[in-house]
Amino acid sequence: MKPNRVLTLVFLLGLAIFIWWADANLDRFIWRVLNFGAIYALAAVGYTMINGVTGQFSLGPHGFMLLGGYLTTLLMLPLHQKRVVWLFTPLSWPFNQFTLPHSGFILALIAGGILAVLAAFFVGIPALRALRGDYLAIATFGFGEILYVLACNFMGLTNGPMGIKGIPQYTDLKWSMGALVILTYAAVRLKNSSYGRALRAIREDELAAESMGINVFRHKLLAFLFSAFCAGVAGGLMATLIGTITPDLFRFFMTFYLLMIIVLGGLGSISGAVVAGFIFAAIFEALRFVDTAVVPGMRMVVFAVLLILVMLFFRRGLFGREEFTWDWILRGVKRAWRWAWARTSGS
Amino acid sequence: MGQNEWILRLQNLTMKFGGLVAVRDFSMDIAYGELVGLIGPNGAGKTTIFNMITGHYPPTSGRVVFEGRDITGLPPWQVARLGIARTFQNIRLCREMTALENVLISFHPRIKSSVFGAILPSFRYLREERKMRERGMELLAAVGLEKWANFRAGALPYGLQRRVEIARALATEPKLFLLDEPAAGMNPAEAADLMNFIRHIRETFNLTIFLIEHVMQVVMGICPRIRVIDFGVSIAEGTPEEIKSNPKVIEAYLGEEALRA
Prior knowledge:
Helices cover 75% and strands 0% of the residues of chain A. By secondary structure, chain A is mainly α. By secondary structure, chain B is α/β, with parallel strands linked by helices.
């Protein structure tokens, strides 16, 4: 086995032990921030596949997260809670008939992802075929807003703006980190495969890619569906972490957060999106005191200033388009070792 | 000549952009194995003709027949898969990708593994990927670029970028190769080199080549048959000698005064 693969396995093993320990013992506040970090990172990994790797400017992930969040909620909410929540309008069939047991959580998450993929399919076929650049951004943004309005008005499914509360808190680090690891693996493989080369070629020069026989539309759709799946699963995890869900949870600001994350990480860098997802969640919580001390909402202003500073000093985000590799770490360790060695032997 | 000898038949192609007629009633037949040049002054409509062949512009009227099949209006990616490859006047490489990756892009349309096979990855995908890399290195070697395989394409010198672009087009396994001003931006010595190179790849890959050039001297050396257009209209066709002495061609290139002098 290659040493890099050994390092990856050791890292995953360490991560598994940490998660097993953290779910039971870690300080609840830090635990929650880590969960949010993993969920943001998961949605960002998908988002960077369409926006960064393929270079198609979509503004729709909050819509896909909304779909995943509501479907997972409807599948997991206990029946007695369903009777309590839908007071004015009764809950529609078939969700008033059944609820999945705890062991069905994985099915609920996957179902949320698949629903998002189906929606992406119907939006993507007209939008990705005809539109690019700003126009694609507006079309996907419109899609997200339509879903918001629908969520506010389909009382029988969503309970409208009043939202749904009492969702069992099934999400823990096992689930959020597990989903993140699996889908990040898939994203890295996809990006480095022949399909990924086609996606990158579309970003670099769509006309040239098309002239080499690449069906540009189908590949854009592929990246779009992948991003929708990640967003759908992330939405489901978020709803079952917070315990409540309202249409406002998945408004445009969610896409704005994700956009900040993938730009911070470096557009097109998957490891950058993961790292930036956690950094975002941590800073977002660390700045909470600004909201309480100054004006509510001030947090976003401070955050925006921080982001501008990052952009000034790291023009292409933290990772650029590069990926994290063990070689990169090892080179750094070697250099530090040599430096330390030279200092001690010199004195 | 019989029907089967033509690889490409262009029949009365016309392209209008609004009120502007870029190409008017252009017809031409190219036989298998030919090396034909298309020349004309700037803005004569040469690239527009290429774009109509490759499907980037659907012609306003007229037909493009490739190997006996009407391909008018097919999208570029389908045209490419049928066996027509092209290069661009202003080199269009994926600059952030390596020279090898640029070539590998062209193999992608023929991949058999599904996207799930590529993600897992399946043994079949790994085998395909290894094959693609081997073939890609062979092609780069054939154009003398094996040393540069892992360099970022955008960082290569201009002349080498042109060769990467040619290698990338060859990787689609074309029957007909369209070269759009391959010698643009080169000095006479480099251009002469390139023309030898084009002759060489034509023999090794058994290609039919249709070549646009703006500088007459460059095509004169290698194309036995040359077509001249001006303002979107064909004005002459023949061997280099015939073209050189054709008054209409001299007028198009140098103006009427040159003719009188």
